[in-house]
Amino acid sequence: MKLGLKKNEVVLVPYEAGWKSEFADTKKKIMEHTNLQSYQIEHIGSTSIEGISAKPVIDIVIGVENFNLLDKAFFMGLKEAGFYRLQVERPDEIVCAKFTDASFETKTHFIHLVEFNKEKWHQMRFFRDYLNANEPVKKEYEVLKNEFFSTDMQGIADYTTYKEQFVQSIFKKMNEGIL
Questions:
Q1: Cα separations in angstroms, 49 against 2, 92, 142
Q2: What pLDDT digit, counting tens, does each position of 98-132 carry?
């Protein structure tokens, strides 16, 4: 199983069952190097949605009680597990990444640090659960992702923007209490 994308690269690969075990191994390593508990670490993103193509990068959401309690020791623990904090500015989220090597060119995993049991935590998990429970919606999402490549758009920012309306429609279902 090959993981990784270079900066601003967008590639989709067929679903691989090995993504689940890669997540499980990574979760174990994160827990060994931090004080995080199992319930705080979940597999999200397209690699957590069974049967659809995805960017070959493992996305992980970690729920923490309070960003202000994340000290240097916490981030050193993540570094020992292979993750580096990125200088990505997102509201209510800290992003870390794991790379293939010391050149830091190819990212294989992302950690999305969010507040536990807050909106972003619930949205990321709901999206995964909703698509896994709804085969037609899952396939619609896969078609949408593949249609991106027939547009004039390119790069990760355009890819994210291209999918945004669909993603927001799923979040709306969460707010309506639909699963």
A1: 18, 24, 10
A2: 999 999 999 999 999 999 999 999 999 999 999 99
